[in-house]
């Protein structure tokens, strides 16, 4: 087999260029920590990397959604606990005042205390998380409830201000998984269309206050609806309704905590997939670089011995 | 009877032949690095016996042939391989530029910007009462629009560059065919005069190979030594005549497409194979297909987002607003709605007015990412698949290029082995010729001495 001068020269240049390219490529991979720079280099893994990156972003977004919602839910949970406690206190006051041994003066004091409790209840109903009203439905920027007061400043009735008090707020916490993070004011205090009824917490407390203030005597003809005993039954029903919401919020809080933990694991899994699709194995790269350097040096050494030598060197 | 004059003539001829041999060696040696050069081989033979009497010893050495060492079959193979290799190399380069335009694996690629766009809706859903996520969402949407436009503009620029390169290729084509025709003339003139035309033939073969890099060509050598060159069934060089390529621009085409016409022909000439074939393929098929996919995405995406957005209410109570400019037909007119740009409080987040905490529309738009587009896949996937498809096509082109380059390289190496100059071989020949020359000179010297001896007889 003849080997021509040009063949040797071009073959040498090609080999050297290939080795230099290989080393430069390894350096690029080492520097970036990635082994795919364009999809054409490895289409299946590029596709997996891009999809995994997107899924990773989504999982991180779900976590942010949960973390954002958790504050709201925790605030509602805390406030509901306070409301239930307050209802219990109201019920205890009513129970005491309902006792035949209570004097009219004691009942007046109880009524005053109940009035304070009603004010506190009003405050709780308009509670805020940051600048958002917790129980305002979609009308989060306005206090959901407004009180009508008598000449002495006592609350006579309470009505919902926001037309969207029943609005539910959702967070997306996973693929096709949305959760309601708010408890609407109507569910708690005043079911829609039932203001001024036995389902209206403000109404029940105000009537309790007034009945007890009136020495535990309901207005004439309304004994069946406004006696302390009946009102306490109403209060009990309302408390059960609120506890039901509190249970929802409590379990939601737990669900979100669990989901967050699950998403963190999923995040690790997607991170691994991104890494496995486009990441580099440092040990492998360093050893490859070492091999390439060795081959490159050997190539130069061989060429130094052969390409410069020809019969010309031995003539004369 | 052998005469001293016969011997002297033998010596003289041997000296001339060895001088010629050294000249050939010198020519070969000095062209050892010349691309396209074919080594020369001097075939020596015995000179026919003259009037040398009954013994017929012979009259020394003579030149049988000064041959250009070349394998015509290999030339054909290399010419075809050059065209195929150039086609795939150009396809690979051009698809590489497409990949660069998409920057699919880099930061802030289209897919990443798309993810950020959807995140913007989630962030708005988390805080629908505020302006901050609206400003952020507007910026993210604008970044996505800008990036799509940048890719679109880059691909359109590649079409324009392909036009320029096709026009430049046509000029090169014309220069090459004119050069081949000119060399045809010179070769005929040279060989008719009995002169050696190997160098001219080398130059012509080199031009034909350069031409085959531009497009697929076939050749046919004529009895007078001229070469006819054909491409796509048309003759482009015949003897001293060449047919030039003319370029026209299609005025009605927005990118003023360059078309080629052979000679005075009115019909378009479409090159097959070679760089020009690949540029045509890229310009007329590959890039338009990708641009149409981008347009389809812009249409599907803006329509899907708008369909939900118009049903919602902004923070300012506005409803019926488009998020993207209505009636998007492609990336060219894909824009954010002017009213949204002017006042991001018009971005819808809720389904009813006066409900600042309502995030149902923002959530609905965030889930549009999974909505199926015109290709029957999710919008996310539709966008992600465009650069992946380009990548897949390039991977295939790279693979094909590697195969064709390897085939060509083997053929070229075989030609180097046959036609290339080996310095070792030439030096060995040099020594051989030198020694032969010295021997011939010795013969002349000896005959001279013999003549002196004879002349000195008294």
On the 0 to 100 scale, the average pLDDT of chain A is 91
Strand content of chain A: 5-15%
- Name the quaternary structure: heterodimer
Query: Percent range for helical residues of chain A?
Result: 55-70%
Q: What is the topology, as strand order, of the major beta sheet of chain B?
A: 3-4-5-6
Biggest sheet layout of chain A? 2 strands, antiparallel
Number of helices of chain A: 8
Overall mean pLDDT score of chain B?
92
**Helix and strand pattern of chain A:** HHHEEEEEEHHHHH
CA(first)-CA(last) distance of chain B: 23 Å
Q: Could you describe the 3D structure shown?
A:
The complex is a heterodimer of chains A (316) and B (458). The longest helix of chain A has 55 residues, at 43-97. Chain A contains eight helices and six strands. In chain A, the strands form three sheets. In chain A, strands 1-2 form a two-stranded antiparallel sheet. In chain A, strands 3-4 form a two-stranded antiparallel ribbon. With 316 residues, chain A is mainly alpha-helical. Chain A is rod-shaped, with a radius of gyration of 38 Å. Chain A has helices spanning 5-32, 43-97, 104-125, 185-188, 201-213, 223-226, 228-278, 282-306; strands at residues 128-129, 132-133, 145-149, 155-160, 170-174, 177-180. In chain A, 64% of the residues lie in helices and 8% in strands. The mean pLDDT of chain A is 91. In chain A, α3 (104-125) packs antiparallel against α5 and α5 packs antiparallel against α7 (228-278). Chain B is rod-shaped, with a radius of gyration of 37 Å. Chain B starts with a helix and ends with a helix. Chain B is α+β, with helices and mostly antiparallel strands and 458 residues long. Chain B contains ten helices and eight strands. Chain B has helices spanning 4-30, 72-102, 110-126, 132-192, 198-214, 274-309, 338-342, 360-366, 379-419, 423-455; strands at 40-46, 61-68, 218-221, 227-231, 234-238, 241-242, 245-249, 258-262. Chain B has a four-stranded antiparallel beta sheet with strand order 3-4-5-6, covered by helices on one side. The longest helix of chain B has 61 residues, at 132-192. In chain B, β3 and β4 (227-231) form a beta hairpin. In chain B, α6 (274-309) packs antiparallel against α9 (379-419).
């Amino acid at each position: 087999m003849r080997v021509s001068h040009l063949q040797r020269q071009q073959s040498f240049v090609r080999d050297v260029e290939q080795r230099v390219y290989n080393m430069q490529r390894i350096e690029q991979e080492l520097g970036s920590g990635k082994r795919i720079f364009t999809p054409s280099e490895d289409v299946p893994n590029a596709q997996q990397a891009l999809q995994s990156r997107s899924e990773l972003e989504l999982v991180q977004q779900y976590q942010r959604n949960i973390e954002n919602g958790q504050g709201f839910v925790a605030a509602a949970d805390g406030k509901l606990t306070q409301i239930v406690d307050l209802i219990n206190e109201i019920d205890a006051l009513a129970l005491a005042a309902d006792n035949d041994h209570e004097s009219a003066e004691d009942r007046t004091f109880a009524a005053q205390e109940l009035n304070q409790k009603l004010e506190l209840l009003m405050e709780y109903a308009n509670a805020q998380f940051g600048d958002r009203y917790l129980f305002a439905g979609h009308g989060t920027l306005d206090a959901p409830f407004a009180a009508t007061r008598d000449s002495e400043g006592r609350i006579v009735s309470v009505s919902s201000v926001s037309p969207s008090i029943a609005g539910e707020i959702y967070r997306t916490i996973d693929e096709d998984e949305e959760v309601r993070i708010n408890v609407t004011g109507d569910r708690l205090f005043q079911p829609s269309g039932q203001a001024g009824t036995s389902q209206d917490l403000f109404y029940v407390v105000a009537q309790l206050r007034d009945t007890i203030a009136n020495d535990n005597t309901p207005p004439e003809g309304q004994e069946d609806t406004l006696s302390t005993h009946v009102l306490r039954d109403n209060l009990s029903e309302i408390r059960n309704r609120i506890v039901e919401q509190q249970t929802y919020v409590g379990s939601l809080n737990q669900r979100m905590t669990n989901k967050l933990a699950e998403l963190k694991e999923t995040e690790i899994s997607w991170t691994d997939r991104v890494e496995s699709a486009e990441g580099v194995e440092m040990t492998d790269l360093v050893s490859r670089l070492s091999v390439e350097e060795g081959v490159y040096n050997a190539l130069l050494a061989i060429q130094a011995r052969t390409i410069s030598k020809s019969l010309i060197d031995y003539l004369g | 009877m052998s005469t001293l004059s016969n011997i002297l003539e033998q010596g003289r001829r041997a000296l001339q032949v060895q001088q010629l041999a050294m000249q050939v060696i010198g020519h070969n040696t000095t062209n050892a690095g010349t691309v396209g050069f074919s080594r020369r081989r001097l075939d020596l033979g015995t000179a026919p016996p003259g009037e040398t009497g009954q013994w017929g010893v012979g009259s020394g050495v003579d030149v049988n042939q000064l041959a250009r060492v070349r394998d015509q079959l290999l030339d054909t193979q290399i010419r075809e391989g050059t065209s195929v290799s150039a086609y795939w190399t150009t396809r690979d380069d051009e698809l590489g530029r497409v990949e660069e335009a998409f920057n699919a694996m880099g930061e802030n690629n289209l897919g990443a910007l798309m993810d950020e766009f959807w995140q913007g809706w989630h962030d708005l859903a988390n805080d629908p009462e505020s302006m901050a996520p609206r400003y952020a969402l507007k910026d993210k949407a604008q970044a996505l629009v800008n990036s799509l436009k940048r890719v679109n503009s880059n691909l359109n620029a590649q079409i324009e560059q392909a036009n320029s390169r096709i026009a430049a290729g046509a000029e090169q084509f014309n220069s090459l065919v004119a050069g081949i025709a000119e060399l045809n003339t010179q070769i005929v003139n040279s060989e008719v005069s009995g002169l050696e035309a190997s160098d001219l033939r080398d130059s012509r073969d080199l031009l034909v190979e350069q031409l085959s890099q531009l497009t697929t060509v076939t050749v046919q050598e004529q009895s007078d030594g001229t070469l006819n060159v054909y491409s796509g069934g048309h003759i482009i060089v015949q003897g001293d005549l060449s047919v030039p390529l003319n370029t026209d621009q299609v005025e009605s085409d927005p990118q003023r497409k360059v078309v080629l016409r052979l000679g005075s022909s009115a019909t378009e000439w479409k090159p097959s194979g070679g760089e020009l074939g690949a540029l045509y393929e890229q310009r007329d098929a590959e890039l338009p297909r990708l641009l149409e996919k981008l347009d389809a995405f812009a249409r599907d995406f803006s329509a899907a987002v708008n369909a939900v957005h118009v049903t919602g209410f902004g923070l300012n109570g506005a409803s019926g607003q488009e998020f993207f400019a209505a009636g998007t037909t492609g990336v060219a007119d894909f824009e954010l709605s002017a009213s949204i740009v002017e006042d991001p409080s018009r971005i819808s987040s809720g389904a009813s007015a006066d409900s600042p905490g309502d995030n149902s529309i923002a959530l609905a738009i965030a889930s549009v990412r999974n909505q199926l587009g015109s290709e029957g896949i999710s919008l996310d996937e539709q966008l992600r698949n465009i650069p992946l498809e380009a990548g897949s096509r390039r991977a295939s082109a790279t693979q094909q290029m590697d195969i064709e380059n390897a085939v060509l390289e083997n053929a070229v190496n075989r030609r180097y082995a046959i036609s290339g100059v080996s310095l070792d071989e030439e030096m060995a020949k040099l020594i051989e010729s030198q020694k032969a020359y010295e021997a011939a000179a010795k013969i002349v010297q000896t005959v001279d001495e013999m003549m002196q001896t004879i002349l000195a007889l008294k």
